[in-house]
Amino acid sequence: MADNRYRCGGLVGLLALLAAGLTAVAAHPYLPGSPGDVETWRWLLAGDSGDVRRLILTDSLLPRLCASLLCGGALALAGVLFQQVLRNPLAEPSTLGVAGGAQLALMATAMLAPGLGVGSGGMPRGLVALAGGAGAAALVVGLAWRAALAPAVVILAGLAVGLTCSALASGLMLFNGAGFQALFLWASGSLSQNGWAIPQALAPQLAAGAALTLLLARPLALLDLGAEGAVGLGVPVRVLRLAALALAVALSAAVVSAAGVIGFVGLAAPAMARLAGARSLDARLAWAPPLGAALLWLADAAAQTVPQLAGGGRELPTGTLTALLGAPLLLWLLTRPGGQGRGLPVTAEAPSHRLARPIPWLAAGLLVLALAVWLALTVGQGVGGWRLSGWTELQPLLYWRAPRMAAAMAAGAMLGAAGVLLQRLTGNPMAGPEVLGISTGAAFGVILLHLAVPAFPVEAQVAAAGAGALATLGAVLLLGRRHGHAPERLLLTGVALTTVFGAVVALLLSSGDPRAFILFRWLTGSTYLVTPAIAMAAWAAALPLLALPLLCARWLEILPLGEAAARSLGLRLPLARGLVLLLVAALTTAATLVVGPLSFVGLMAPHAARLFGLQRAVPQLAGAALAGALVMVVADWLGRVLLFPSQMPAGLLATLLGAPYLLWLLRR
């Protein structure tokens, strides 16, 4: 009886939603009269087919309405399936990396293999997106399999895969400068329609997905009893999970191929259904799709009306608005008791040895860094191919090569030191200024300053970046305080804040401002425009900031022992934590201004130092600074020579090196 009530409620909600959508269309300014006017509906149903207003209605507004309802319903249904199979209330296409994988596959195929004719009579877009989404899902499941698909590990793996796909997609967009704006708008999620092709393609796919879901609903509901209970009742759990995951991936890929990445609808709709009292799987399956359709429809309506209310301008991407709505919901779910579900703590693997005499190893690292600097300055590509420049040939090139190499080296050293400080402060081996969103917060402050003030001094840029970094770090620690700064909570909170900043940045960059492409290149860590003055300023900031943590060496040895041990040893925790946080914010701010917000150097470098046995605070700080500088020097050199005459930003290339390292850490 209850299940039938929920099914009827879902049907009534869907019909009410369709009625509201048609009423909204009838009230559009392109139509004559009002929604309650009979003449309006008569014109709507049998008006002049040559009327421009009618063409706009039939070929744009109505298809867009149907596309928003279909995409929202499909994403909500996929979210329910992901959450039921993985037993994780935070699972949805975006947090699992499925949407990012599908987007990357479509973008890479269209740009790198145009001969396949994706979407233009050649290979179907849906098939390419399905392959990318399935590959991302398989990678996430493989990374989390050893942890028995624990919710925390699954989400962390999904976010890491999503960040990797996002970095690769950003690289592809950089090499398509002429079509950057259109490509960026599609990647941000756009429902603009020019006919009925997309709704006609989505409708049968969603109908088939709904039918298959109904067939799987009863055995999926038995998963609430646990894997052992379901097996005892004769349910083939592995086959069932694989089938449900494949169905959810297919629904997600269909939406990405039609409208780009539209995040968090698959998270918000099931959460709203649960808050409304839909506890059973049948109830969530009945309520979540209409709610998802309503959410996306409202977000798309806002994307169309906000620019008009603001006096005109470029239409906003719908996907960025859903991210702005969904990321705060993710933060709220993380702050609820048990909101993350059962999970496993993220722990570090202890190094196999500790160096008794670290100075010789640090000296060897310094020699390796010197060799990398020599390589970056003297070896490059030219018109005649690879070339090793002598001193005479090198002199005119030093003006171009030395400043960017020096600035990248300073930024890498500062990020490495910031990573050590964060990991020792939080006791979290997966912490880093990039992973916790601190770098993105700094970049967000700079972008707001750029778009709000036409001209400003360098001091204002530094202040804006520092304020953004410090505010983000404070928010992460404040939100994680309720759960004792649990490592997995801090990571997920940092990623959620990064998503909020990313959505706002996407809104700013999609505004049509001519500086958008320049800002986007800076966000990817470009060192193209580094001058000798900028390089000197980077080192002027790096030298004192790298020396200050040495004064906190005793604190850094005690903080990883825990709060109780630190207090028993006489450490004033509020003072120590506050000063260390200020150092982290300063180091991250200075580095982000040079190489952008995402490089993973702050995560990689401390682990590299640990793997060589540098466990004490001072040796680890020195080793991480050397490792970070080495990574950024090599990344800047490779970005300059690999695709000559084209170039890749050093921060982006470091991200492509660091993201697989993050996946490897999760696997371990």
TrEMBL record:
<feature type="transmembrane region" description="Helical">
    <location>
        <begin position="435"/>
        <end position="456"/>
    </location>
</feature>
<feature type="transmembrane region" description="Helical">
    <location>
        <begin position="491"/>
        <end position="509"/>
    </location>
</feature>
<keyword id="KW-0812">Transmembrane</keyword>
<keyword id="KW-0813">Transport</keyword>
<feature type="transmembrane region" description="Helical">
    <location>
        <begin position="152"/>
        <end position="175"/>
    </location>
</feature>
<feature type="transmembrane region" description="Helical">
    <location>
        <begin position="404"/>
        <end position="423"/>
    </location>
</feature>
<feature type="transmembrane region" description="Helical">
    <location>
        <begin position="579"/>
        <end position="605"/>
    </location>
</feature>
<feature type="transmembrane region" description="Helical">
    <location>
        <begin position="242"/>
        <end position="273"/>
    </location>
</feature>
<keyword id="KW-1133">Transmembrane helix</keyword>
<feature type="transmembrane region" description="Helical">
    <location>
        <begin position="462"/>
        <end position="479"/>
    </location>
</feature>
<feature type="transmembrane region" description="Helical">
    <location>
        <begin position="94"/>
        <end position="114"/>
    </location>
</feature>
<feature type="transmembrane region" description="Helical">
    <location>
        <begin position="529"/>
        <end position="551"/>
    </location>
</feature>
<keyword id="KW-0472">Membrane</keyword>
<feature type="transmembrane region" description="Helical">
    <location>
        <begin position="61"/>
        <end position="82"/>
    </location>
</feature>
<feature type="transmembrane region" description="Helical">
    <location>
        <begin position="126"/>
        <end position="145"/>
    </location>
</feature>
<protein>
    <submittedName>
        <fullName>Fe(3+)-hydroxamate ABC transporter permease FhuB</fullName>
    </submittedName>
</protein>
<dbReference type="Pfam" id="PF01032">
    <property type="entry name" value="FecCD"/>
</dbReference>
<dbReference type="InterPro" id="IPR000522">
    <property type="entry name" value="ABC_transptr_permease_BtuC"/>
</dbReference>
<feature type="transmembrane region" description="Helical">
    <location>
        <begin position="650"/>
        <end position="666"/>
    </location>
</feature>
<keyword id="KW-1003">Cell membrane</keyword>
<feature type="transmembrane region" description="Helical">
    <location>
        <begin position="617"/>
        <end position="638"/>
    </location>
</feature>
<comment type="similarity">
    <text>Belongs to the binding-protein-dependent transport system permease family. FecCD subfamily.</text>
</comment>
<dbReference type="InterPro" id="IPR037294">
    <property type="entry name" value="ABC_BtuC-like"/>
</dbReference>
<feature type="transmembrane region" description="Helical">
    <location>
        <begin position="361"/>
        <end position="384"/>
    </location>
</feature>
